[in-house]
Amino acid sequence: MDYSHTDTELVRQPIGYWTWAAYKAVVTRTRAALAELGTTQPQWWVLAQVARADTPKTRAEVSELLRNYLDTGPEAMESEIDATVTAGWIVQDAETSDGRLSLTPEGRAFFEKAAALQDDLWTERHAGISDEEYLTTMKVLQRVIHNTGGRAWHH
Questions:
Q1: CB-CB contact of 42 with 70 (8 Å)
Q2: What percent of the chain clears pLDDT 70, i.e. is strictly above it?
Q3: What is the CA 98 to chain-centroid distance, rounded?
Q4: Residue 126: CB partners within 8 Å, gap ≥ 6?
Q5: What is the Cα–Cα distance from 43 to 84, expressed in whole angstroms?
Q6: Average pLDDT in the 91-102 region?
Q7: CB of 45 within 8 A of CB of 69?
Q8: Which end of the chain is more exposed for a tag (fewer CB within 10 A), N or C?
Q9: Residue 111: which CATH number?
Q10: For residue 76, is it within any domain?
């Protein structure tokens, strides 16, 4: 791959710009691919949280966990959960007061299809990048966040 600058120039480049450009590229690609399947990235997050849970999560637990993924209020995540229910991928247990969420058979099949797509996208993003390079990048980004007083987490 040809880089846009020499190492001497690149070391002085603004990390804010490059992290923003990487974010835009990854999110745009991911959202376009998921749209082709008929879903959104936030709906994928909901499906993944419900599908991968050891014990069924409540609507409140899923909403609380994922609302930090969006730069909007908690009502945005609630809307995304509603969309997965409307699509028939998730049901909310009406028998319990806490509304535990579970996948429908259609939701399980859709989740598996979307998970395979996410695996393909991961492979695409990591082409030519060793695990060691990726790990170093993640640690550097976490250090930059820490150094600037920011907070970040990913579950």
A1: yes
A2: 90
A3: 25
A4: 134
A5: 6
A6: 79
A7: yes
A8: N
A9: 1.10.10.10
A10: yes
The pLDDT of residue 155 is above 60: no
Give domain status of residue 136, yes or no: no
- Token pair 């480049």 in the structure block, residue: 13
Report the alpha-carbon distance of residue 67 to residue 39 in Å, rounded: 18
**Which residues partner with 90 through β-bridges?**
103
Burial 11-28 (b: 16+ CB within 10 A, else e): eeeeeeeeeeeeeeeeee
End-to-end CA distance of the chain: 32
Residue type, 135: L
Considering the domain boundaries, does residue 28 fall inside one? no
Average pLDDT, the chain: 88
Residue 102, token pair as written in the block: 């579970």
The answer to whether residue 26 scores a pLDDT higher than 80 is yes
Do the Cβ atoms of 47 and 114 come closer than 8 Å? yes
Maximum CA extent, the chain: 63
Look at residues 153, 145, 147, 122 and name the one whose alpha carbon lies nearest to residue 19: 145
> Phi and psi for 103 in degrees, rounded to 5?
-80, 145
The tokens describing 69, both together, are 């993924």
Domain count, the chain: 1
**Residue 87 CB neighbours (<10 A):** 16
Domain assignment of residue 86, given as a range:
40-117
Closest CA relative to residue 89, chosen from 116, 122, 60, 49: 49
